[in-house]
Design goal:
Layout lengths: L6 H15 L4 H31 L5 H22 L3
Length: 86
């Protein structure tokens, strides 16, 4: 859960936090930390969802669109030159 932090190190960190903030501020500090973690998780989940949505959208190849327009223009020009009186 805490990676490579052992119980001894965790206990030392908690005692230091208790000495710095005092027992009266610990509940508010824990509440603030919990809210921050919840917002962080929500943000990462939203980012993941939007990236998945973006990955699922089809990619339009601009080269193909340009070639299609070029062929259409060439066909229209050829048709106009064939149909126009000389």
């Amino acid at each position: 859960m805490f990676g490579k932090i052992g119980m001894g190190e965790l206990l030392v960190v908690l005692v230091i936090i208790l000495l710095i903030f005092g027992p009266s501020k610990l509940p508010a500090l824990a509440k603030s930390l919990g809210q921050s973690l919840r917002e962080f998780r929500k943000g990462t989940q939203d980012l993941t969802n939007s990236l998945e949505t973006f990955a699922d959208e089809p990619v339009v190849n601009t080269t193909t669109l340009d070639q299609t327009k070029s062929v259409s223009t060439t066909a229209e020009t050829a048709s106009a030159s064939v149909n126009s009186p000389s």
